[in-house]
Amino acid sequence: MGDSNEHHAVRVRQCPAGEFCRSNTGLWDTNDTGAVAAHECGHFFGLADEYADANCPNRNPVNTGTIMDNNSNVVPARMMTRFANNIGSNVVAI
Ligand SMILES: [Zn+2]
């Protein structure tokens, strides 16, 4: 790679035809929608998944209808508070 000192690297693959490839913060797929990419970027902001997952029975909250639940375009202010605090700003409803 030509770049260095990155904070995070993402590999991008092409999912084989007929297979389901779930993306994560380190591995994206060429067929990912913008909504999936936005969800994964949410993890870069420190956000946790909010979808129900049998492998994570104690996850809370779940089924929130937000970007971290079902990749919707719903990003409540609570999701940006930590980021705003880190840059010395605050969240303003729009
Ligand atoms: Zn996720």
Walk me through what this model shows.
With 94 residues, this protein is an alpha+beta fold. It has a domain of 55 residues. Helix content is 22%, strand content 6%. It has three helices and two strands. A two-stranded parallel sheet has the order 1-2. The chain starts with 10 loop residues before the first strand and ends in an 8-residue tail after the last helix. The structure holds zinc ion.
Question: What tags apply to this protein structure?
Answer:
single chain, 94 residues, two-stranded parallel ribbon, 3 helices, binds zinc ion
Query: Given the structure, what is the number of helices?
Result: 3
Classification by helices and strands: alpha+beta
Mean pLDDT, to the nearest integer, reads 92
Which strand-content bin applies to the residues? 5-15%
Biggest β-sheet strands, sense, barrel: 2 strands, parallel
**Tertiary shape:** globular
Strand order of the largest sheet: 1-2
Q: List the secondary-structure elements in sequence, H or E.
A: EEHHH
Helix content: 10-25%
> What is the count of β-strands?
2
Bound molecule kinds, no repeats: zinc ion
Instruction: Tell me the span between the first and last alpha carbons.
Output: 40 Å
Sequence stretches where pLDDT stays below 50 over 5 or more residues: none
